[in-house]
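Lecture notes, structural biology module. Today: joint structure prediction for complexes of two components.
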Amino acid sequence: MTRNEALFQFLLRLGDNTGILSHRVSEWIGHAPVLEEDIALANTALDLIGQTTFWLELAGEVEGKGRTADNLAYLRDAWDYRNLLLVERPNGDFGKTMMRQFLFDAWQSLMLGKLLTSTDPRVAEIAAKASKEVAYHLERSADTVVGLGDGTDESHNRMQAALDDLWDYTGEMFISDEVDEVLAAANIAPKAASLKTEWEELVGHILRDATLTIPDSSYTHKGGKSGVHTEHLGFILADMQFLQRAYPGATW
Amino acid sequence: MSKEWPLWEVFIRGQHGMSHRHIGSLHAPDAEMAIKNARDVYTRRNEGVSIWVVEAVHIAASSPSDKGPFYEPSNSKVYRHPAFFDIPDDVGAM
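The predicted structure, tokenised, for the full assembly:
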């Protein structure tokens, strides 16, 4: 695998994570439990769309076949998507959405932190811009996880159920493969596994404050990073890509 | 205990000027979340550099029914306006 091939895959992973999560979060618009959370979720979704645009634009440039960010977002099928399975999980209740957001934000903030010193200046620049947004996402999702986890019996039980359900999808973040090896050797990006300890510390600390118990499970669902997805991704893409599929090249 | 989050009044200091201005209200479970919610609801277009929130119950307000005794007496006291002084030209704009 050449360095450019590895970088292309890596950028798709970053852009698809934020793109698919953005779509999931945007499903809440108009449905959130209170107006304030509705707007906050919309803001998060918009930040993530912005990040997706940057990562996929760069991916297209690195690939060198003239594909734009829009081409990559709207004209790839599920098996060409490279996002973590975690971000395609259904929203569930508000607490579960915030738990998923928290588990992802914690990972993304660490990843972007490492990418700030990437030897590829284009990657470092995008990371610098995104890391400010993500620092806020993490602050907000962590606060909500603590508030609901250490809240009423009802909210505590829902957050514990959310954690139990999502936990087995977090291990995929830390599985290194050839893409990571090639990019780590060039100091473009860290190996996936190298973020694990810091993530566990960060997440463990917040979950303790939230009085939640980390499931005793080392099982990991995986495949998203290499294009093997759950059935949910197809439904997301059907919704997201409908317009460009039905009316190719449509603009407004 | 009420199931509703308390109401907070939000004050934002803009890019220009020193004063925080009241710009609206919102609901939040505590002060910290009120500031976060204010950030998300009221500063989306780069409106502010500083946020104050105060729980609405802590604001003491004058009563609308006191309008007469409170404000009308000052209607007839034009001499309180400093409009009766001749201002020398070399003072410039005041």
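Point to remember: DSSP finds ten helices and no strands in chain A.
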